[in-house]
Amino acid sequence: MRTVFDKVILPPAQRFKPNIILVSAGYDGHVLDPLANFQFTTGTYYILASKIKKLAKELCGGRCVFFLEGG
User: Fold this and answer.
1) For residues 59 and 11, is the Cβ–Cβ distance under 8 A?
2) Closest to 15 measured CA to CA, from 68, 70, 55
3) CA-based angle 59:62:31, to the nearest 5?
4) pLDDT at 52 over 80
C-alpha cells in the first residue's frame, strides 16, 4: 500500500496543490469485512491516514477532513 500511495497518489496531489484534503473514509477493505477482498489491517489504515495527514501538512497547511461513511 505504501508504494501505491507514493507512486499513484502523491505525484498528482503535489502537482494539484490542494487548499484542503477531504477523505471519504470507508472500511470495506478491512480484512474482517466480508464484502471486499482488500485485506487491509488496522495498521494499513493507520499508515494511510498518517501519510494523508503528512501530505496535508506539506501541501495545504494541515487542512484535512476525514469523513466516516458507510451503510
Assistant:
1) no
2) 55
3) 95
4) yes
- The amino acid present at 47, given as its one-letter code, is I
Question: Closest Cα to residue 65, out of 24, 25, 27, 22?
Answer: 22
- Class of residue 69 by CB neighbours under 10 A (exposed 0-12, middle 13-18, buried 19+): exposed
Cell 501541501 belongs to: 59
Rounded CA-CA distance 42/24 in Å is 17
Count of positions (residues) in the chain: 71
Identity (one letter) of the amino acid at 48? Answer: L
d(CA 38, CA 16): 28
Report the predicted TM-score, pTM, of the whole model to 2 decimal places: 0.85
